[in-house]
Design goal:
Helix content is about 35%, strand content about 25%. By secondary structure, it is α/β, with parallel strands linked by helices. Strands 6-7-8-3-9-10 form a 6-stranded mixed β-sheet, with helices on both faces. It has a 4-stranded antiparallel β-sheet with strand order 2-1-4-5, covered by helices on one side. The longest helix has 16 residues.
Length: about 250
């Protein structure tokens, strides 16, 4: 589902290493406005590192990342400004325990973007209502379940009005019964036209939400396909072996 001719996010020949070990090796990827791209692959293949490089949390050794056709990895732009356009939600919620849900959410727009507290609070309340947590706006993180905390973390990223959202295995730390409530929020975002790059181990969710599936292994993109094609007719032996891990028979 390509919403425009020019990609919103362009990754060109990205390389990242730790000492002599390549974590990402010559990774190139385009993401268009309104597209939902899901990245899957075995642990340690570079999925999370890719997201962290896009958001400036990891330095890169070579390659380029462009947002809106503007190079963001040349060291000339401030990452504090870039991250207002690239929202990211992690496995851990990282909510401030001494602040209410509402105060956690409006901290970014008031301190970083200079928005008025009243206007930011109204926006936060609309987003909380959208995910069914308006009644928790005055609660503290300790009073929330894991799934509720993760949904608040998503709202905290959304209120900055980013152009693209990055999700790094956001259900990995949740109990199974809490996973669905978080995935439902992400499905709703996808249906509303949000541009998203999602790292997940939830294969059924990947099938439901993705416009395109990227399979990574050994720091490289091994395969890129529609979810229908990838999950029924993967092109590579490595992808087939990976998917067979999720098939259980008596």
């Amino acid at each position: 589902m390509l919403k425009g001719n020019e990609p919103l996010l362009e990754i060109r020949h990205l390389r990242k290493n730790y000492d002599a070990d390549d974590v990402l090796s010559d990774v190139s990827l385009d993401i268009h406005k309104g597209e939902v791209v899901v990245v899957i692959g075995p642990s340690g293949c570079g999925k999370s590192t890719l997201l962290r490089c896009i958001n400036g949390l990891e330095p890169i050794q070579s390659g380029e990342i462009l947002l809106d056709s503007q190079l963001i990895t040349d060291g000339k732009k401030k990452w504090s400004e870039i991250r207002q356009k690239i929202g990211m939600v992690f496995q851990s919620y990282d909510l401030f325990p001494h602040m209410t849900v509402l105060d956690n959410i409006i901290l970014g727009p008031t301190k970083v973007q200079g928005r008025k507290k009243e206007a930011a609070a109204k926006s936060a309340e609309k987003l909380l209502a959208r995910i069914g947590l308006l009644d928790k706006k005055d609660a503290y993180p300790r009073q929330l379940s894991g799934g509720q905390k993760q949904r608040v973390a998503i709202v905290r990223a959304l209120i900055m009005e980013p152009e693209i959202m990055l999700f790094d295995e956001v259900t990995a730390a949740l109990d199974p019964e809490m996973v669905r409530e978080v995935l439902d929020v992400m499905l709703e975002l996808a249906r509303s036209g949000s541009t998203m790059l999602i790292v997940t181990h939830e294969m059924q969710f990947a099938k439901a939400v993705a416009d395109r599936v990227i399979f990574m292994d050994g720091g490289e993109i091994v395969e890129s396909a529609s979810p229908e094609e990838f999950f029924t007719q993967p092109k590579t032996d490595r992808a087939r072996r990976f998917l067979n891990m999720f098939n259980f028979e008596k």
